[in-house]
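Appendix B. Raw example, untouched.
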Amino acid sequence: MGKCFKHFLYEMDQRFTSAQVVKLTGITPRQLQWWDERGIVKPQREGRIRLYSFDDVTEIAVICALRRKGFPLQRVRRIMKFLQKEFGRRLAEAVSNGSEYHLLTDGKRIYLENSQRQVIDILKNSRQPLLSVCLSDAVKEVRAEIFNRRPAQKQAARSAGKRRSS
């Protein structure tokens, strides 16, 4: 098995606590709890602890990107349902195949395109301003953030262990 595939399998099986999701995505703990209570994101549970999959973290990152661009949560919920319907599977799985997916919306219509030409055509023919999120970039950013933090966390754990044994 190649190194990249092993990392991919590790990443897909990894689970994250609420505190880790907050650090990875910039969401507040209260927002995360509220989204869970409303069913926007549905983490697994072990007792009272919420555990998020890589797919959950990816979707949270996309939701955060849309919220930062001014989308109300009700519209974000509609967009996420649209994406699940279009892809027929979780967002991270769908955009990990190498295609660049772009989500564009004018607030009423939602477009999902994977070709630069289609994106340009939509932008040219739009009668209103469009907001755009590159879904593939969002997945790549989450993946990079996870892999950048993991070695640092291991190093911190090793350092703490050395201090205790001294």
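End of appendix B.
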